[in-house]
Amino acid sequence: SGALNDLRELTKLIHANGSLVVWDASHAIGVVDLQFDRDDVDLAIGCTYKYGNSGPGAPAWIYVNQKLQNELNMPIQGWFAQKDQFVMGSKFEKAEGMRGFQIASPSILGIRCVKTSFEMIKAASLRTISEKAAIGTSLMIEIFDELLAPLGFELTTPRDSNRRGGHISIHHIDAEKIARGLRLDKNVIPDYRVPNCIRLAISPLANSYEEIWEGLIRISDYVKSGDYQHLGEAKSSVT
Questions:
Q1: DSSP β-ladder status, 61-64 and 43-46
Q2: Is 185 exposed, middle or buried, given 0-12, 13-18 or 19+ CB atoms closer than 10 A?
Q3: Domain boundaries, the chain
Q4: How far apart are CA 58 and CA 102, in angstroms?
Q5: Which fold has domain 126-230?
Q6: So what CATH class is 7-124?
Q7: Sheet with 154-155: strands ordered across
Q8: Are strands 22-24 and 43-46 parallel, antiparallel or unpaired?
């Protein structure tokens, strides 16, 4: 939906119950100003190919609170996590700290993409990026109300910018055909999810507010035209 959880308060609640929490930050990293140390997060995981802008197949990441790093064990014991990396004995000895959560040789090209992209994110600052995402999604919602709501679309993303991330979710009975047709006919690339959801995101480092306006205008015009209704069954599993 694009909704943003109150990470700090939920973590406090979970800790009060004597439990640990793992946060999935795949849709937040690179667009939300996350502060895992400050908020006493236990563990977090995510990808780098969304707002990390590092491309398909880019490495995933894991955060482990420093106080847990020597207590927890990875279920996959790789040689990069071995205390003495080149000792291939019969017993695995886990390295201390975050090195103990590595597995094996990463893709050098993938790592290079991550390094370059996150250097750009650092230079721009997450605070600035998250502010642009809030303005961009607010603009999306404003245009949605004017152009898409009258066409049968429903918004399921919080309207409060403090309660959402970098995308909005809209629903329509013909969402699959509309999303597919937009890619094929209008050079607009949305993200479809079953059964009837279209996700629209701003990539703050790359997208302009003008592109947001242009994209939603194209969606509105395409749905009004009804051209998507002539599409046959989808031939690809990629949505």
A1: antiparallel
A2: middle
A3: 7-124, 126-230
A4: 15
A5: Aspartate Aminotransferase, domain 1 (3.90.1150)
A6: alpha beta
A7: 154-155, 167-171, 197-201, 191-193
A8: parallel
